[in-house]
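Annex B, item 7. Sequence and C-alpha cells for protein A, then protein B.
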Amino acid sequence: MSFFTGIKNAFSGGGIDESVWNIPESENDLEQIFDRSTEKPQLIYKHSNSCSICWFAKSEIEAASESIMELADLHFINVVRFRAISNLIASKSGIIHQSPQVLIIQNGKVFWHASHGRIRAHAILEQLRG
C-alpha cells in the first residue's frame, strides 16, 4: 500500500472486509475466540480509526490475509467503539493495550504480540508457521 492510500484510508474511514475479519462485539464472543484457540490460532487486531499507523497495519495484514487465514482466524477490534472488549483482552491476556496491536492466541494464551511498526505480515506468518 502506498503512503497516500494509507492517509486516504485514515481520513475516509476505510472499510472492514467481513470476508477477512470476524468482529467480536461481546464478552461471550471474546471467550469463544480464546476457546477456539485450542483448535486453531486466533489473531486479534486492535484498531483505532483516528490513527494513521493503524491503517497501515490493517492494510499490511489484509494484503497477506489469504495466507494468514490458512493458519489462523482473524478478529478485528475497533478500540473506540468496543473499548470494553479491548480492555477485557488486556486483562485476560496480561498484555498492555496498544493500538495498533496484534495478538496471536493459541491454547488460550497469547504466544506472540506486536504493536505499531512491528506489525508486519512476514512476522505474523513466521510466528504462525512456527
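Protein B:
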Amino acid sequence: MYYAAKMKLEFLAEGSPECPLIRLYAFSQSEATRLGELVRDLAIGDREYMPLHNEAWVESVGECALNLRRGDGNHGVRESHPGVFECLLNAEGWRSVDELVEPFRESDTSGFQWLIHDGKIALLISQSGQW
C-alpha cells in the first residue's frame, strides 16, 4: 500500500486509554526508511537533535511539533511547550526505536508498533493510524 501524502505527525490528548500519545501514520515505505535513517543518525551520534516536524516528508497535524534528541538517559516523550514535544533517548534507546521501525521500512507492513510506551506520552507508528 502506498500513501501519496506525507507521513502524518499528530498528538492525541484523549480518546483512548493509551492517550496522550503522538502517532506517526499514513506513510510510505520510503518515508519509514527516512525515519529509520534519522533514528540511526541519533543512535550512532551523527546527530544530536532533529526537529521531525520540519522534514519535507512529514506533515504536522494540528501544529504538532516533535523534536528528537539524543541525551544521556531515556526520558521518553514530554511536552516542552503547548503543542511542542521532545523525545529524549540515549544511543541504546534510539537503537531500540530503529529496530521497531525496521518492519515498516522492509515492506508495506500493516499494524502498529509502540516506539515508546512508558512515561506520560507514548509514541506510536501505524500506517493506518489505528492501534
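Comment on protein B: Strands lie at 7-12, 21-25, 49-51, 58-61, 65-70, 76-81, 84-89, 112-116, 122-126.
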